[in-house]
Design goal:
By secondary structure, this protein is an alpha+beta fold. 32% of the residues lie in helices and 14% in strands. β3 and β4 form a beta hairpin. α2 packs across α5. Bound molecules: zinc ion (ZN). Zinc ion binds next to loops.
């Protein structure tokens, strides 16, 4: 690998760091993910370990171990960071473009979601690119499962509220 593209040494950096904006403990993110999703990288960026703040309501997305290096906020990224967005479209799966609304609509219609299964098929076939597409750099299936759970619960609650029970 040529020196210009080397990813820095993450072995010495702490696994978890507090976000300098809201203090939430954040995990390491690969430099490849940061470089892929930040719209415009500053010149002369120092090689440091970056961390991903996934707290809703905090505008910081990637912050560096080395405080001299730049911190990147939501507006610096080429994608909307789903966990930090409150209005549609809220991306959940960045590789295949599924949003929270896709999951909500499917559950409203059928009571369940097949999106996780459809993504799993693609992941198994090696078609995903989470490392360079998902701001977390990780597979989205965990977040998909969480959103499905939330939507199923919200869907059941709304049915009870309008008094339809569980009838189709
Ligand atoms: Zn934060």
């Amino acid at each position: 690998m040529s020196d210009c593209c080397s990813l820095g040494d993450s072995s010495k950096a702490p696994a978890v760091m507090a976000c300098p904006v809201n203090g939430v403990r954040s995990k390491q993110v690969d430099m490849l993910t940061v470089k892929s999703l930040v719209r415009q990288l500053p010149l002369g960026m120092s090689k440091t370990q970056y961390y991903f703040c996934e707290a809703p309501g905090c505008d910081a997305v990637y912050f560096p171990l080395d405080a001299q290096a730049p911190l990147f906020r939501c507006g610096d990224l080429t994608v909307r960071v789903g966990v930090k967005e409150t209005a549609d479209p809220i991306p959940v799966c960045y590789c295949f473009g599924f949003t929270r609304k896709n999951i909500q609509d499917e559950i409203a219609k059928t009571g369940r979601s097949t999106i996780g299964e459809r993504i799993t098929v693609e992941v198994k076939a090696g078609n995903c690119g989470c490392e360079v597409k998902n701001p977390s750099g990780k597979c989205c299936l965990g977040s998909v499962a969480q959103v499905v759970k939330d939507c199923v619960r919200a869907n059941q609650r709304s049915k009870i509220e309008v008094g339809q029970g569980d009838r189709p």
